[in-house]
Structures are given as structure tokens and as C-alpha cells.
Amino acid sequence: MLTQDQLKRQAADAALELVAEVAAPDVIIGVGTGSTADLFIDGLAAFKGRLRGTVASSERSAQRLASHGLPVFDLNEVQTMPLYVDGADEIDARLHMIKGGGGALTREKIVASVAERFICIADESKLVERLGAFPLPVEVIPMAREAVARRLAALGGRPVLREGFVTDNGNVILDVHGLAITDATGLESQINDMAGVVTCGLFAIAGADVALLATQNGIRRL
Ligand code: 5RP
Predict the structure, then answer these.
(1) What integer best gives the mean pLDDT of the chain?
(2) Which of the residues 113, 115, 117, 180 has an alpha carbon 20 to 30 A from that of 209?
(3) pLDDT score at 31
(4) Does domain 4-128+206-221 match CATH 3.40.50.720?
(5) Which ligand 1 atom is nearest residue 101's CA?
(6) Tens of pLDDT along 53-93?
(7) Percent residues over pLDDT 90 in the chain
(8) CA-CA distances (angstroms) from residue 140 to 107, 135, 155?
């Protein structure tokens, strides 16, 4: 029986196989945030010298990439990337996701938007029938915290401020419990339209292109 960490490593290794297919001296890879992304970063170290570099979705990932000697570029210097590789807190069969457990959702969405393909790596426990058991992270400009919380409550959610946490962008996170997510793309637009919201952790309007889900019987590709 493989542990969850072993499964995460298996998913990360499967993504590294995709990196091997595109690796070239001019190629930049987009890199996500979280414990699964950390394993991917550690494996990516083997590609040092065979890639131009990376773009990171958080300061944490940037530091880990740099610690392996992998160049980290500012996204403003990069026009395209063949792959963006990241984990998820939940993913459904349509490849819609909830992300942001690590609080990096905004930069994750931005870096992913510049990549040709979003590769989601996760252990199979992240695959759900319906999104929403995991509280939905919403990044909010600090002065709008209470106003946005009231609007999220009006949608039927229970927003909880992530205590002692400030995003890489200097904002706060509201984790919204109890949302019934039947229309993920509609809800994503609705929340993103609220004044003061930077972005929410629904990745449905632009979901993953490929999910590499590690199971006890190998990788399941969606
Ligand atoms: C960070 C994220 C992560 O991808 C998500 O939280 C999954 O993390 P992990 O790989 O540790 O389970 O969205 O903002």
C-alpha cells in the first residue's frame, strides 16, 4: 500500500515525463505551489542545463527552485510556456479544480494563463464528484474583507478569515465553507466580479488540460 506521499511523488514523476518531452534550451516551465509541486520541483532539478528556466507561482516555490540552481524568471520576461504543473485541493471529472490551500491561487492562475497546458498532479484522493467539500479560498484586498465576507455569506457560504496569513501579494484569504458548487464556472465569475476580490480558487473557466492522478494501481490520466 503506497502512502499519500509516495502517490504524490508518482504524480510528480509522471509530470516530469511530460517535461522530458518538451525540454529544450529555450523552454520555460511554469511551476505551482504545494507539497506535490515541491516534489515536482525536486525532480525538475535533474533538468538543470536542459531548460532555460522556470516561472514560479509563489515565493516559496521560487526559493525551492533557486535552491536547486534552477533559474526563476519574472513572468513579465516570458511570453509562453509549454507546461504549467501544479497540484489541486479538489478536481472533478471535468478537470475543474479548487486550489489555494497554500494561498498561492492568484499567482497560480496568472502563471497558468500564460502556459499552453495546465498539468494537474495529485493523488487520487483529490478527485471528487462535486467540488466544494474543501473550503473555497478567496484572495481579498484587506480593506474589502468584511464587505466581501457579507457577499459570500449571501451566496450561502460561511467565510472564515485565514488567521495570520498574508498572500505573496499582501492580501488576505477568506476560506468559504459550505458552498454548494453546482455551476463552477458561473460561481467563479460571480465571486471574481465582487469588488475587492482578487480572484477565487475555482479554476473552472480555465481548468486543467490534463490530470495525472496517482492511484494504488499507477497513474490515472484524465
Ligand atoms: C496552493 C495550491 C496547491 O496546489 C493545493 O493546495 C494542493 O496542495 P498539495 O499538493 O500540498 O496537496 O493550490 O495554493
Answers:
(1) 98
(2) 180
(3) 98
(4) no
(5) 6
(6) 999 999 999 999 999 999 999 999 999 999 999 999 999 99
(7) 100
(8) 13, 15, 16
Strand partners, 127: 91
Please confirm, yes or no, whether 90 is among the known catalytic residues. Answer: no
**Which ligand 1 atom sits closest to the C-alpha of 33?**
1
Output the 3-class SS for 142-154: HHHHHHHHHHHHH
Task: List the 81-86 sheet strands across, edge first.
Answer: 53-56, 28-31, 81-86, 115-123, 210-215, 218-221
Mutate to test the pocket of ligand 1, among 4, 35, 39, 124 (most ligand atoms within 8 A of CB): 35
Instruction: Please pick, among 90, 108, 139, 188, the residue that the annotation labels catalytic.
Output: 108
**Does residue 35's CB lie within 6 angstroms of at least one atom of ligand 1?**
yes
16: Cα separation from own chain's centroid? 17
Model pTM greater than 0.85?
yes
> Domain boundaries in the chain?
4-128+206-221, 136-200
Task: List alpha helices for 95-202, DSSP H.
Answer: 105-114, 145-154, 184-192
- Residues 88-103: what's their mean pLDDT? 98
Q: How confident is the model at residue 15 (pLDDT cuts 50, 70, 90)?
A: very high
- Domain 136-200 of CATH type 2.60.40.10: no
Q: 150 with 87: CB under 8 angstroms?
A: no
- Evaluate if residue 127 carries a pLDDT over 90: yes
Q: Whose CA is nearest to atom 1 of ligand 1?
A: 102
What strand order describes the sheet that includes 136-140?
158-161, 172-177, 136-140, 197-200
